[in-house]
Amino acid sequence: MQTRWWLLAGAGALAIALVVGWTIYEVSADPLRGVETVAIEPIENVPDFVQDGVLGQLSVKFKDRGIRIDAANPDAVIHIDVSRLELTESGFYLEASLEIKKKTGERRRMIFTLSIDQKGINAQLRRA
After folding, report:
1. What are the residues whose beta carbons fall under 8 Å from the beta carbon of 109, sequence distance 6 or more?
2. Angle subtended at Cα 58 by Cα 40 and Cα 86, rounded to the nearest 5 degrees
3. Rounded mean pLDDT, 100-116
4. pLDDT in tens, 58-73
5. Please, what is the Cα angle at 55 between 49 and 59, to 5 degrees?
6. Is the overall model pTM greater than 0.85, yes or no?
7. In the chain, where are the structural domains located?
């Protein structure tokens, strides 16, 4: 009887560990995992030159990951919400939240930062 109880307790602990491990893996996984093509919705309420800069640098970041921009047949649609925009005489700084809506219905978020100034262009795309 006691051996049976230990076997059941061990199996239960293993099941819990698997569920916790899988949950941690899913949360930390790349939001763009499995995406080969994206469509990017136009950014609202920003000057055209800022929108051009953001879309240009996002294209570079996506290309580095092997992702193409294809509005006709996207695996995911990206909505960009600008949370911070600073325009100065020497350039600009932008921070935006990207909402990624995959064909599967899954929704994920990423953070995109872009600064263009006298030092050059710095763009970063990371998990939220």
Report:
1. 31, 97, 98, 99, 100, 127, 128
2. 100
3. 92
4. 888 888 889 998 889 9
5. 145
6. no
7. 1-30, 37-127
